[in-house]
User: Which sequence fits this backbone?
């Protein structure tokens, strides 16, 4: 007989405690104990409790390998068993008669009656678990999770996604917490009620004037939205949004003018000034291009029975000497030059030039929402999340490293498939290109997607924007990428002693292979690896995953409301076709081109919700669920947190000197995962 002390920690969240009965079986090298009840006088397993139990094993089971946790509803005399409930267990600590404590991290909900198997907390790659019982447990755990979390092809040419229809179908471990869910619907309900009371959501006609739009602008105010309202017509602000707005990923250095964008020296002389030319500025590297060519010929939507329109503009920008502002030089609203596709210039009539810039902003909306936000920052993180759950067991160091960066991603994406990107919902009823246009854009972009675009340092180099001043997305993003990369490198160094150890980890290779096949649809041209051969390649890949799920999403999501609250700065649809000549634009025609009242309000409501985390936050580097139990990874986590704090102090110091602070990549404001 052997006496063990068992310490159990229950989570603090609402509903984390249980009335069910819990017992444990201890599995060792010599056998397995029968279920041992964890039962003291009074109520056990209340939320936030840490409790001690003494259990006696009838026989010695040898060195402890696993802990089986059994949960079942209590049986009442005459009434029989009660309905089972859910329990959130943080961890078990087992103290054998001889030897130190054994910690078994859990951090899972146990729903209903059933059994959960836990392995001692030391992280191990597949080749490091030598005992047959442990190897078998890894396989059984993955088989169970692969049955629970299955793939489906949501739309042709899209990354695959979780095979669940509604958030009600999700199991508790991937659902919003009760508090987060309640906050989300309270926010949505209050915002919807305000719009309804103002009578704006049901009004299908045009805005009467720009002044009338201020009614909705007063809905919710932020410093970013206020700045956009005050400066939206200014060329410098228009250009700055390509650097630090909601879509800071398209601008690239222009080394030669595209043949289908025939800008001449005479057109831009007033902005460039005397003594220079387009060719001279191209050679200096002071010209930049934003090309929305992927929108060419895209399907458009019908809103309130009226066909909508889209454009595929090209915008040429000029970086003023010294630290002067970035300025627009020329805009062409199609990919085909000619008499019906004039090149608009800052010297044109006020309304001609403003209308051209507004068409570019509409293209930014479509590109950002379909590609930068939905595809790159939601659908791909869902692929990373599903592959992690299906291919890496809890004891794997990469599972422990990555699981905080998958929190709530499956919930918010399932909710999006219910409420945003389905017929009759927001994208369908209120955006200029609608669901069909979104789908076509994603299909096109999936064929162009490449690995370098997902790795920020390579993306910055490829676009040639290493030295453009005032590019805070780049500056802050590169600091965070570097901090994540150093953290990942330390963790990889602990568990992978050589390149061969990476190659020999079959679970890691299965994870990478599944991401390649289900996320990138086996497209070798993408450069996305289907296997990893070196520690260096593994570090880059895992850094890319964490950065995409945290900082990248924050950079392109948190500013959505700031950009769209004053709708003319980011119109979701355009009701008249792009102009084919100059000199005809008027204030009345400008307003008639903008989206109708109900579509405007619909989008602003949606983007306000998607810009606002509904509580229960975990900022980047915050890991309250302590999956790692060894000292080495814990030290690396502490160092990572210190680096992020240092980055934050630098960002806040810089922001004190800016008219419009760039806050989207301040680490305390970045969520660990895609959760909204």
Assistant:
């Amino acid at each position: 007989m052997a006496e063990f002390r068992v310490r159990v920690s229950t989570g603090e969240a609402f509903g984390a405690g249980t009335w069910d009965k819990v017992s444990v079986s201890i599995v060792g090298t010599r056998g397995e104990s029968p279920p041992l009840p964890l039962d003291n006088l009074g109520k056990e397993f209340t939320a936030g409790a840490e409790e001690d139990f003494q259990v006696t094993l009838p026989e010695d089971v040898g060195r402890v390998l696993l802990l089986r946790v059994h949960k079942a509803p209590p049986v009442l005399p005459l009434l029989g068993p009660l309905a089972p409930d859910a329990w959130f267990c943080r961890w078990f600590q087992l103290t054998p008669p001889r030897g130190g404590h054994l910690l078994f991290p859990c951090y899972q909900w146990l729903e209903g009656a059933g059994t959960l198997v836990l392995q001692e907390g030391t992280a191990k790659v597949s080749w490091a678990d030598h005992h047959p019982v442990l190897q078998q447990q890894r396989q059984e755990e993955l088989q169970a999770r692969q049955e629970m979390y299955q793939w489906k092809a949501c739309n042709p040419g899209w990354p695959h996604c979780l095979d669940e229809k509604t958030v009600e179908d999700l199991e508790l471990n991937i659902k919003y917490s009760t508090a987060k869910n309640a906050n989300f619907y309270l926010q949505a309900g209050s915002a919807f009620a305000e719009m309804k009371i103002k009578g704006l959501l049901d009004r299908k006609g045009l805005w009467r004037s720009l002044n009338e739009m201020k009614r909705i602008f007063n809905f919710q105010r932020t410093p970013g939205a206020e700045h956009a309202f005050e400066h939206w017509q200014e060329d410098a602000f228009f250009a700055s949004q390509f650097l630090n707005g909601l879509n800071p990923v398209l601008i690239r250095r222009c080394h030669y003018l595209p043949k289908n964008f025939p800008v001449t020296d005479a057109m831009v002389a007033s902005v460039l000034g005397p003594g220079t030319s387009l060719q001279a500025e191209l050679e200096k590297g002071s010209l930049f291009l934003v090309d929305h060519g992927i929108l060419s010929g895209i399907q458009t939507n019908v809103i309130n029975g009226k066909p909508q329109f889209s454009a595929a503009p090209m915008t040429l920008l000029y970086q003023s000497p010294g630290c002067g502002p970035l300025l627009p030089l020329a805009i062409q609203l199609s990919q085909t030059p000619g008499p019906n596709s004039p090149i608009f210039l800052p010297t044109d009539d006020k309304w001609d030039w403003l209308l051209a810039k507004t068409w570019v902003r509409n293209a930014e909306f479509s590109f950002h929402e379909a590609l930068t936000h939905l595809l790159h920052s939601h659908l791909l993180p869902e692929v990373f999340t599903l592959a992690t759950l299906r291919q890496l067991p809890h004891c794997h160091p990469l599972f422990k490293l990555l699981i905080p960066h998958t929190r709530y991603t499956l919930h918010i994406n399932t909710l999006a498939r219910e409420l945003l990107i389905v017929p009759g919902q927001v994208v369908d009823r209120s955006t200029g290109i609608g669901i069909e246009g979104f789908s076509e854009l994603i299909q096109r972009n999936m064929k162009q997607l490449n690995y370098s675009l997902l790795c920020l340092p390579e993306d910055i180099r490829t676009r040639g924007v290493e030295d453009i001043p005032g590019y805070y997305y780049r500056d802050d993003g590169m600091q965070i990428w570097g901090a994540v990369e150093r953290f990942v490198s330390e963790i990889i160094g602990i568990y992978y002693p050589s390149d061969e150890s990476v190659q020999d980890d079959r679970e890691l290779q299965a994870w990478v292979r599944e991401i390649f096949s289900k996320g990138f649809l086996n497209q070798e041209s993408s450069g996305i690896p289907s296997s990893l051969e070196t520690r260096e390649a593994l570090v880059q890949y895992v850094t890319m995953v964490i950065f995409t799920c945290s900082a990248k999403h924050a950079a392109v999501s948190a500013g959505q409301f700031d950009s769209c609250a004053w709708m003319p700065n980011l119109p979701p649809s355009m009701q008249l076709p792009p102009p084919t000549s100059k000199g005809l634009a008027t204030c009345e025609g400008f307003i008639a081109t903008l989206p109708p009242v109900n579509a405007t309000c619909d989008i602003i409501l949606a983007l306000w919700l998607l810009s606002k985390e509904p509580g229960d936050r975990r900022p980047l580097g915050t890991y309250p669920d302590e999956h790692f139990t060894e000292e080495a990874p814990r030290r690396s986590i502490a160092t990572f947190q210190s680096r992020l704090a240092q980055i934050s102090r630098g960002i806040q110091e810089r922001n004190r000197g800016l008219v419009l602070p760039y806050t989207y990549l301040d680490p305390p404001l970045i969520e660990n995962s895609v959760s909204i």
